[in-house]
Design brief:
alpha/beta, Adenylosuccinate Synthetase, Chain A, domain 1, Adenylosuccinate Synthetase, subunit A, domain 2, 2 domains, ten-stranded mixed sheet, four-stranded mixed sheet, 20 strands
């Protein structure tokens, strides 16, 4: 079964990196197919923690090619920093390949992302301010800079000049805004506020020559990794090898099918693996969805089962729910089966992985949302398509017995408390998809396989 897509089934941060790392043992290649360094995948191996933003989660398997696909947007500075960090820790990164067709996040994308969020104020979406959205926008406008352009200084300079021209007004406005923030912070005599103002609104004066030279140097360092990655995928698949397609973010953050506009700028669903890696639909044989045993969300947007009480705080602290990329606290809440069933159908998932079941130990009873009730009192059994309905929807819960046992040492289904098994069975039966793997702790060995 050569093509397996791994996708987030909630709002992201479900533990996809750990699952990818585990399944990579049985795969021939691992491919990241969308998103940018707004993603954060954490892997704990032999007690050592690795955090990835751009590099595929299979990189610790040095004998397996790891691919950054054409659907990913790449900040070369961040990528090189990740590579340098891994090398310092003794990790061989010679197996990394980067699509020549992947688009580059340029310095002006980060500036524009920051400016856009600041301009929206209280209406901000809550982006990571990493330049992801503006980069994808330039890609659609055909003003994008691609990885292959790093290898041709003349083309690179021409493309940067063309991309910068329509942005000059926005960058000038940001410069004015920056001076205003400097003045306000300085008038208040607040040195810390001044430093924060400068950090939040960096200098937008971008020199074409400097930027070109800098990115040419990036190209020299990345050249050994740049390849026709679609062809590499074809060769692996045609040879009968298993290829893992790794998504970032998650289904409910999908640009088309998520809680728009509080979404990411790409398509994290399984169908996007074909476009973002350059393979055909029939190359995909299985889709594995990853969901936490509860739910979390970072940034703004609707979250029907959100908890702002002691239980939610318990989930946050026990689950260490802080963003890998931003460090922000994640909003926590009960498992939302209405949303999960929507994600299952949208991705046509063939299997589920439930992570962080150990976090629910000591909580009782456990609740799962099985339907919503609209503001007008209507019962909603399916995920509402209209944003006004979703924003005001109230969850209706089914209560299940909790468990107090520490399950971090469980390694088989029979080791799990009956209440934990009943909780998993309820989820699987509700969404009509088998659960294949359960996470009971952060370590890669802290898993329970439910089916071979």
């Amino acid at each position: 079964m050569p093509g397996i897509v791994i996708v987030g089934a909630q709002w992201g941060d479900e533990g996809k990196g750990k699952i990818t790392d585990l399944l990579a043992e049985r795969a021939g290649m691992i491919v990241r197919f969308q998103g940018g360094n707004n993603a954060g995948h954490t892997i704990v191996r032999d007690g050592e923690e690795f955090k990835f933003h751009l590099i595929p989660s299979g990189i610790l398997h040095s004998d397996k090619p790891c691919v950054i696909g054409n659907g990913v947007v790449v900040d070369p500075r961040i990528l090189l920093s990740e590579l340098d960090g891994l090398r310092r820790r003794g990790v061989d990164t010679g197996n990394l390949r980067i699509s020549a067709n992947a688009h580059l996040i340029m310095p002006y994308h980060v500036l524009l992302d920051t400016a856009g969020e600041m301009k929206l104020g209280k209406l901000s979406i809550g982006t990571t301010r990493r330049g992801i959205g503006p980069c994808y926008a330039d890609k659609a406008l055909r003003l994008g800079i691609r990885v292959q352009d790093l290898l041709d200084e003349k083309i690179l300079r021409t493309k940067i000049r063309a991309a910068l021209e329509p942005k000059q007004q926005a960058l000038r406005e940001l410069s004015v805004q920056r001076r205003k923030l400097r003045k306000e912070a300085g008038e208040e005599g607040d040195k810390e506020g001044l430093e924060q103002a400068i950090e939040d609104a960096p200098d937008p004066r971008l020199d074409l020559h400097t930027m070109t030279e800098e990115h040419v140097s990036y190209g020299h360092r990345l050249e050994p990794h740049i390849a026709d990655t679609a062809r590499l995928c074809w060769e692996m698949l045609d040879g009968g090898q298993t290829v893992l397609f790794e998504g970032a973010q998650a289904t409910l953050l999908d640009l088309d099918h998520g809680t728009y506009p509080f979404v990411t700028s790409s398509n994290p669903i399984a169908g996007a693996a074909c476009v973002g890696a350059g393979v055909g639909p029939t190359d995909i044989d299985e889709v594995w969805g990853v969901a936490k045993a509860y739910a979390t969300r970072v940034g703004a947007g609707p979250f029907p089962t959100e908890l702002e009480d002691a239980v939610g705080r318990h989930m946050l602290e026990r689950g260490h729910e802080y963003g890998t990329t931003t460090g922000r606290e994640r909003r926590c809440g009960w498992m939302d089966l209405v949303a999960l069933r929507y994600a299952v159908r949208l991705n046509r998932m063939s299997a589920l992985t439930i992570t962080k079941l150990d976090v629910l130990s000591g909580i009782g009873p456990l609740k799962v949302a099985v339907r919503y009730r609209s503001r007008e009192g209507a019962i909603l059994d399916t995920f509402p398509y209209h944003q006004s309905i979703l924003h005001s929807a109230a969850p209706e819960y089914e209560e299940l017995p909790g468990f107090d046992a520490d399950i971090s040492d469980c390694r088989s289904e029979s080791d799990l408390p009956p209440q934990a098994r009943a909780y998993l069975d309820f989820i699987a039966n509700f969404v009509d998809v088998p659960i294949r793997l359960v996470g009971v702790g952060p370590g890669r060995e802290q898993v329970v396989w439910l089916k071979d």
